[in-house]
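W.,

You were right to be curious about this one. When I first looked at the sequence I had no strong expectations either way, so I just let the prediction run and decided to look at it fresh. Below is the sequence, 381 residues in total, followed by the output.
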Amino acid sequence: MTRYMSASDSLRQKIAVDSACVIKMDEKVDKTNKDLDRPVVKLWFVDISDFGRTSQFLLLSSAIFVAYLIYGYLQELIFRLKEFRPFGWYLTLVQFLCYLIFGLLEMYVRKNFTRKIPLKTYALLAFLTVATMGLSNTSVGYLNYPTQVIFKCCKLIPVMVGSILIQGRRYNCLDVSAMLSMVIGLILFTLADSSVSPNFNTYGVILISLALCADGAIGNVQEKAMKQHEASNTEIVFYSYGIGFFYILVGLVISGNFFPAFEFCRQHPVQTYGYGLLFSISGYIGVAFVLSLVKASGALIAVTVTTCRKAVTIVLSFLFFSKPFTFQYVWSGLLVVIGIYLNVYSKNRTSMDQVMLDTFTRMQTCFRSKRTSYRNTLTEV
């Protein structure tokens, strides 16, 4: 009898141990599945995937602000050298060389040198990238910097006009309202700039407008190439800026602007090459931070953060560099911001409505609880 009881007890113990092992294995599997579902989020090379969502957002947003505020400050500072204003393309050449080296180093660190996108596609991407950044950099020499930033906020305009003319696409009232708000804001901002700024030049407006058109096209080409060939951001940066570097170099040599720019930069190495290197580093890191924020919090949050960053850039430009100011800048800038958020709302109406509803519900609940607490206090008194 004792023998049977001990056998029964040992069987129960074995079943209990097996059950515990199964539970632990299930917990490990669940944890592994959660880890697989969670996106890998990096602050440059630092993995912050284990941080909470709020911590990720605060870290990445702060990093974006720091990187791009340095980028904007240095870009305007470089063009404070009046003799450097005709050499915007040379600054772009230096920037492309830096991005090429950074991309190569990042590919080496990640041990990934495979090219997935055809060179023909990269030739087009490089041309659009050169047009976007080269024309944008050159325009700073002919425009008030806040005006250049406002123009760069309005990429939606050429995208919508191009898709209407080329694809025959139709847009809803919100999208049309967003574009009209941006157009009116741009016109008013430009008129304000032309009336008070001694540096205003119509040539600068033409340059930044062409840069805007190229910027509107480059996103579609990049997105299509990445989806078709599943290429990494590092690969696209390396080949786009590498081919673009040779485009600019050939253009500068043929036009005869390379050697005058080289000679001027040789005479002012700190203000040109020194600031240009820091300018390139901050821009390259800023792009990586924005992509990480998109992965961690979504495109809507990323657009909000980058728009706020541009607004702060404009304010700091007036604080750090003396320039004439008029309140028409404020009203026209607000029209552009309204246009941006109408566009974002049009694309994310359901999620934004839900966020606003949740916020209103929380505020209402908080107000009711405080009112109830206040009434109870009065009753006790």
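Here's what jumped out at me. Confidence is low (pLDDT under 50) at residues 1-5, 22-36. And, maybe more interesting for your project: Residues 352-381 form one domain.

Coffee later to discuss?

I.
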